[in-house]
Amino acid sequence: MTSDTVAERPTAKRVRRPHAWLWASLAGIVSAAALLAVAELLATLVARSASPVLAVGSFIVDIVPRPLKELAITLFGEADKIALLAGIGLGAAVASAVAGVLQYRFRPTGAILLGIGGALATAAILTRANAGALSFVPPVVGTVAGIVVLLLLVGRLRRWVAAATADGADADEVGVNRRGFFLMTGIVGAGAIVVGVGARILNATVASVSAARNALSLPAPRTTVTIPEGAMLDVDGLTPLITPNEDFYRVDTALTVPNVDPNTWSLTIDGMVDQQIEISFDQLISMGLDEYGVTLTCVSNEVGGGLVGNAIWTGVPIRDVLRMAGVQSGADMVLSESVDGYTASTPLSALTDDNLDAIFAVEMNGEPLPFEHGFPVRMVVPGLYGYVSATKWVTKLTVTTFAQDEAYWTPRGYSAEAPIKMSSRVDTPKIGTPVAAGRVPIAGMAWAQPVGVKSVEVMIDSGEWQQATLSTPVNDSTWVQWMLEWDAEPGTHYITVRATDNDGNVQIQEQAPIAPNGSSGWQRTLVTVS
User: What DSSP state is assigned to residue 504?
Assistant: First the structure.
């Protein structure tokens, strides 16, 4: 045989074996993406509240143990919901990848697993308070679509693997099957991203009532809050007396901010009342608006923490609305409900006390409530932690008893009644920020609702307590600023602060966690002086 003869022999194309498990995982992920995309699209068309991701996320928020909830707020702060959604996405990706591998190896277990996931999402949607008659349609149809895609993709993958592993494998045939798998995977994956993201954006756009909020013209309040002279101390690093809306803390259970049109909003009062009533937004406003200065505090606020804010709220006293319904004897609690199903248990006495201005707020710092803070109507109750009083997007009050009903957080380990504990904190100097020796202002905030702060004392290391200078309080329901001039010497020092209220009670020294009814203790800050 000559060399020319050898050169003329055709060279066989090398057939590469596909990484079946890897591509099966991809098929599972793309199938789950198709499920979510179809569900989101249908949710936009027939039931905007039927998003599987948001429903599952809300379900997880509902069932998460109290320690994990506290840990999430500690680690992520107001970004806890973003972290939750990211975790759900990661978990879904892993589960769908497993479904793809199982479908490839053990038909039809992958399809069954995907179906179970869809069934759980459907259950999460249908058990939400705002579920509608057609809420089952998006997750069910989406699940069917996801299973069909999984069957098709894994079927193409099998044909590709079979062609590549057959005796005398034909490279052209293998190439056709490989391209067919990747073409379908790419088309479905890209389509799922476009449709899913587009549907979520469209869902938010359709539900948006920004135009209604921007066009809202509220009557001027009959009474206004006057900021007295001396209410604000001029100290760098000190928190402002009035918290800007964009800086006000937000802690709630809503994964997406409800968009409620004031033109369709209504408030129902039922339960232990002489007559059930329902009033519209216009009827509420027509009762007359007044301004109130009130500091709100979250029960999740640690000693020295920032989950507290002060604002000028405009609204209508809740007691006036309850009076319209006629509260019956024997009632001691009002169960308030948000449009998203969240509930809070508020002592009836806190809402009917003529000396305690619990209100339905419609404005915050001179503008309609921001969406994330409860537009169009929320509750503001001085002296109670937000989880038992400050219901956002409120739409219903049920007059009842603590013995008969319980609210969202009570079975999760929190007290049914939660008066705010007096507290004080150091804003400046900050931990980890050295200061120069010499005259240094120590300053911070203190609050003791609804009694008011009488004094604040500061201790340097283990020295004597020193009286701080207080700002002039706006009222007893708002926090106050305080300041002490300190002759700082080089070294490390501990700064301890405590407050005393107008009844003579001293802030609790004993350290307590945020559960079941709020943290307590004196803040002790380490400061380095250079």
Answer: S
CB atoms within 10 A of CB 480: 27
pLDDT at 66: 66
Element (H, E) at 483: strand 480-488
| H or E element, residue 75 | helix 66-76
For residue 80, CA distances in Å to 275, 324, 374 come to 41, 39, 19
Give, as one character, the DSSP assignment of residue 474.
S
Say if residue 466's pLDDT is above 50.
Answer: yes
pLDDT of residue 98: 95
Q: Is the dihedral of CA 393, 341, 45, 82 positive or negative?
A: positive
234 Cβ partners below 8 Å, 6+ apart?
none
Q: Which pLDDT score is estimated for 69?
A: 66
The answer on pLDDT for 322 being more than 70 is yes
Distance CA 408, CA 343 (A): 5
- For 347-391, the DSSP string reads EHHHHH-TTS--EEEEEETTEEPPGGGTTT-EEE-TTB-GGGT--
| Nearest to 145, CA basis, from 38, 55, 29, 28 | 38
**Six-digit token pair at 158?**
């099998």
Give pTM, 2 decimals: 0.74
State the amino acid at position 30 in one-letter form. Answer: V
Output the six-digit token pair for 18: 């596909």
Whether the Cβ atoms of residue 308 and residue 295 lie closer than 8 Å to each other? yes
Angstrom CA distances, 293 to 322, 350, 496, 516, stand at 22, 16, 28, 27
Query: Which letter does DSSP use for residue 437 in this model?
Result: S
Cβ neighbours, 10 Å, residue 199 = 22
Name the DSSP letter for residue 241: S
Contact 360, 321 (CB under 8 A): yes
Mean pLDDT of 469-486: 98
| 241 half-sphere exposure, CB direction, 13 A CA radius | 23
What radius of gyration, in Å, describes the C-alpha atoms of the chain? 30
Residue 1 scores a pLDDT above 60? no
For 528, list phi and psi in degrees, rounded to 5.
Answer: -105, 130
